[in-house]
Amino acid sequence: MGKSASKQFAEEVLKAHNDYRKKHGVPPLKICKKLNTGAQQYAEKLASTRVLQHSPESANGKCGENLAWASYDQPGNEVAERWYNEIKNYNFQNPGFSSGTGHFTAMVWKDTKKMGVGKASANDGSTFVVARYDPPGNVVNPGFYEKNVLPPKK
């Protein structure tokens, strides 16, 4: 399989998340070894199947998950920026889940404490990145978006 998410890559993704989180006035995330391992294993699975789909763990609510695919070796800050840029489609006046903003809301979700990052290359040179979040964001209970997805500070 391709090379694993180097510590440096994971730290780059983490730093980008925390820079964005600071703009929204929410606490920084910490890297979690266990989440890293799970994210890495899943990135390798995606790279072998080359089908970008969410994991069973995220489907059953055990963790939050953001996925990214690119035809080249994507830098960590670029991956994070692509997810974060969904903010332009998020309506803070009408908060809630939408498939076009789920990556952004997972990143800045206030109650999330820890994250893990995995990256793997497929044999065609494309790369799959998996970020996992604990506790997971994007919880659709009433009032949760208002409490967890705060508008950026001016």
From TrEMBL:
<dbReference type="InterPro" id="IPR035940">
    <property type="entry name" value="CAP_sf"/>
</dbReference>
<keyword id="KW-0449">Lipoprotein</keyword>
<dbReference type="InterPro" id="IPR001283">
    <property type="entry name" value="CRISP-related"/>
</dbReference>
<protein>
    <recommendedName>
        <fullName>Golgi-associated plant pathogenesis-related protein 1</fullName>
    </recommendedName>
</protein>
<dbReference type="GO" id="GO:0010634">
    <property type="term" value="P:positive regulation of epithelial cell migration"/>
</dbReference>
<dbReference type="InterPro" id="IPR018244">
    <property type="entry name" value="Allrgn_V5/Tpx1_CS"/>
</dbReference>
<dbReference type="GO" id="GO:0010718">
    <property type="term" value="P:positive regulation of epithelial to mesenchymal transition"/>
</dbReference>
<feature type="domain" description="SCP">
    <location>
        <begin position="8"/>
        <end position="141"/>
    </location>
</feature>
<keyword id="KW-0175">Coiled coil</keyword>
<dbReference type="GO" id="GO:0070374">
    <property type="term" value="P:positive regulation of ERK1 and ERK2 cascade"/>
</dbReference>
<keyword id="KW-0472">Membrane</keyword>
<keyword id="KW-0333">Golgi apparatus</keyword>
<keyword id="KW-0519">Myristate</keyword>
<dbReference type="Pfam" id="PF00188">
    <property type="entry name" value="CAP"/>
</dbReference>
<dbReference type="InterPro" id="IPR014044">
    <property type="entry name" value="CAP_dom"/>
</dbReference>
<dbReference type="GO" id="GO:0042803">
    <property type="term" value="F:protein homodimerization activity"/>
</dbReference>
<dbReference type="GO" id="GO:0005576">
    <property type="term" value="C:extracellular region"/>
</dbReference>
<dbReference type="InterPro" id="IPR034113">
    <property type="entry name" value="SCP_GAPR1-like"/>
</dbReference>
<comment type="similarity">
    <text>Belongs to the CRISP family.</text>
</comment>
<comment type="subunit">
    <text>Homodimer. Interacts with CAV1.</text>
</comment>
<dbReference type="GO" id="GO:0000139">
    <property type="term" value="C:Golgi membrane"/>
</dbReference>
